[in-house]
Amino acid sequence: MGSSTEHSAYGPTRNPWALDRIPGGSSGGAAAAVAAGQAPASIGTDTGGSIRQPAALCGVVGLKPTYGRVSRYGLLAFASSLDQIGPLTWTVADAAAVLQVLAGPDPRDATASTEPPPDLSRLFPGNVRGTRIGVPRVALADGVDPEVLDAFGAALAMLSDRGAEVCDVDLPHMQYAVPVYYLVAPAEASSNLARYDGVRYGHRAKLDGAAAGVSEMYARTRSEGFGAEVKRRIMLGTYALSAGYYDAYYVHAQRVRSLIRNDFDRAFAAVDAVAMPTTPTPAFRIGERIDDPLAMYLGDVFTVSANLTGLPAISLPAGLTQARLPIGFQLVGRPFDEATLLRIGDALERDAPWSDERPPAFA
């Protein structure tokens, strides 16, 4: 878990653009493999930005479909109301092609939509004339790296030159998205991961002597099997769900979650997509924030809203910093309207001078 892929049991993943930098996370390995040319496409899971963040920091396309568009059958559950599976690819057309295969109903997943996926192969004329793109300017006022803001503005200008209409939208409750997410997601993780007790699933600790009891086996199994970040989230979630705190924390967070969704619904009455940076900063150095979980969590500020609301979202390459680190441009769309996001993304990709850039570690 986490947005840096430093907490993997296999060790940290490195960013192909700069090997001393994180690739984003938690699907950092999937993004790095595509960015390094090791695979034409990969599959990630997005609970709070875990497809889009690594896509942004590795300079590839990452698509989180609408909740229910892709079956979660077989997925290791983190937060069941937030998790969604999606592709990471070099191009928007490739993302559409992979989504076309992944999407559709599944009788083994009750949350999978019965709505058949649209034909995504006809989306790429490069035409966005008349498409309305909303920007929540207030959310961009603080904490965003100047190079990220410049790249975001340049991407909007390219779309505007192609005929898109850019306007401001108001998402007043988006400022609460990170605290809401870090109540809802750990609470669901605490519940989902309770099954990993050494009896039914996964790792089981080896005990010394026959006198060791089942309680010791549980404790040692979970201590050995979960990493530091997973343990931190289980403890946060267990606390939020405990007697005396459930209503004050978890229930209240779910109410604010509904307000965030209402904000987006109002915005989509006037616009076709909402644009914002994918991450507030470029990739940071490995180890730079590992002892500061709060700073790490604040990196999710632009991505968690799409998971809390179940809306589709895509991260697109938006150029490089002066240090040649990738920057991501994010679009959030109406429910089950991945087609509009892919169409806008294709238009941006056609004009982008960075489309042919490859990292030093490209295979």
UniProtKB/TrEMBL annotation:
Residues 1-23 are annotated as: Disordered. Keywords: ATP-binding, Ligase, Mitochondrion, Nucleotide-binding, Protein biosynthesis. Signal peptide: none annotated. Its EC number is 6.3.5.7. Pfam families: Amidase. It is an enzyme of class 6 (ligase). One of its GO terms (cellular component) is mitochondrion. PROSITE patterns: AMIDASES. Residues 1-342 form the Amidase domain. It catalyses: L-glutamyl-tRNA(Gln) + L-glutamine + ATP + H2O = L-glutaminyl-tRNA(Gln) + L-glutamate + ADP + phosphate + H(+). SUPFAM superfamilies: Amidase signature (AS) enzymes. The keyword Cell wall biogenesis/degradation does not apply. Subunit of the heterotrimeric GatCAB amidotransferase (AdT) complex, composed of A, B and C subunits. Belongs to the amidase family. GatA subfamily. PANTHER family: GLUTAMYL-TRNA(GLN) AMIDOTRANSFERASE SUBUNIT A, TRANSAMIDASE. HAMAP family: GatA (MF_00120). This is Glutamyl-tRNA(Gln) amidotransferase subunit A, mitochondrial. It comes from Geodia barretti.
